[in-house]
Amino acid sequence: AAAEKGGYDYFMLKEIAEQPGAVADTLLGHFQDGRIVLDEQRMSDQDLRDIDKVFIVACGSAYHSGMVAKYAIEHWTRLPCEVEIASEFRYRDPVLDRSTLVVAISQSGETADTLEAVRHAKTQKARVLAVCNTNGSQIPREADAVLYTHAGPEIGVASTKAYLAQITANYLVGLALAQARGTKYPDEVAAEFRQLERMPEDIQKVVDSLDPVRGIARELAGSKSVLFLGRHVGYPTALEGALKLKELAYMHAEGFPAGELKHGPIALIEEGMPVFIVMPPVEGRGVLHSKLVSNIQEIRARGARTIVIAEEGDEVARPLSDYFIPIPASTTLLQPLLATIPYQAFAAEVAAARGYDVDKPRNLAKSVTVE
Ligand code: G6P
């Protein structure tokens, strides 16, 4: 078993380290002569042009990957895009028709709630695209088209490499839609193309610099409760950070949009409470960066200990951080591929420090095939 883990104590640590390859393999073959080709996707450019609304359905981490996709798809394509937990979607009465694209995201391809959401979408005549990591599993079998993630088998119950591969595949869907339909922001979309292609190298840099994160985890392993804040795509990243900590370390954790702080969560802040924040790129979207600076100041004034993930050159965020975790520069929309990784390593290390089985957290299953 030790050999299977490639020298790591846990499969999860091995899978965190495999993320540059998981993303590279998911991108492989999809960039051809400056165009995105979704060859596994049985949908033509004409099909993509006929769509007037996108629904993303998924559970768990896959749902968080869908939240990231919503920001990208709406901006690049100006198509309305909703993202919903599969078990809520199917028992609501979502408005779908043949020009709706439903994207069902699932690592296993067997999650019962996501499968039922796919069936519900099909009875409403929507077109269903599966984003899936498991060849021949049920969700891609029932979908109209499939885009496979190539993360390889994931053993750790808490998703890591499959999650980054899902985010990557979702970007491919968004870029393919923008390409087929046209975009209001051709220069930006071209820059995202280039950034996405070189992401595996930047992910490698983050993976290679996780030791300080493990040190922080050991220091904070006794915490009662941890908050995660972010804005824009930093918000789903906050949710994923909190989910990882709940799943693995059995520690109370909440993710919030930073703008909601003053509407409740700020009341939770006590002296010394750890609060994680992802800073958007300095050169990013509008005023996001300065808004987060204000949020950090608000929580520091109330005694929080801030752990800030930010671009290595972010000299505004650095002095506001009790712990500063640098990541490479990227575009705002692609940043979750980098910013999520320290959260994975943090949760794994806290769990190990607390004496828990990182690969097999209590009460959880890798794939949930009952509703
Ligand atoms: C379970 C796993 C999670 C996963 C979720 C969705 O809860 O423990 O890690 O995110 O199922 O799984 P799927 O296979 O549909 O992506």
H/I helix tally: 13
What are the low-pLDDT stretches, counting only 5+ consecutive residues below 50?
none
The portion of residues assigned to helices is: 40-55%
**Strand proportion:** 15-25%
Question: What is the H-and-E element order?
Answer: HHEEHEHEHEHEHEHHHEHEEHEEH
**Alpha carbon gyration radius:** 20 Å
Largest sheet: 5 strands, parallel
Shape: globular
Task: Please outline the helices and strands.
Elements: H1 11-17, H2 19-27, E1 31-32, E2 35-36, H3 45-50, E3 53-58, H4 60-77, E4 81-85, H5 86-89, E5 100-106, H6 112-123, E6 127-132, H7 138-142, E7 145-148, H8 161-181, H9 186-207, H10 211-220, E8 225-230, H11 234-249, E9 252-257, E10 274-278, H12 288-301, E11 305-311, E12 323-327, H13 336-353
Helix pairs in contact: 2-8, 2-9, 4-8, 4-11, 9-13, 10-13, 11-13
The protein binds 6-O-phosphono-alpha-D-glucopyranose.
Residues 59-62, 106-108, 111, 114, 157-159, 364, 366-368 line the site of 6-O-phosphono-alpha-D-glucopyranose (G6P).
Domain SIS: 44-183, 216-361
Subunit structure: Homodimer.
Catalytic activity: D-fructose 6-phosphate + L-glutamine = D-glucosamine 6-phosphate + L-glutamate
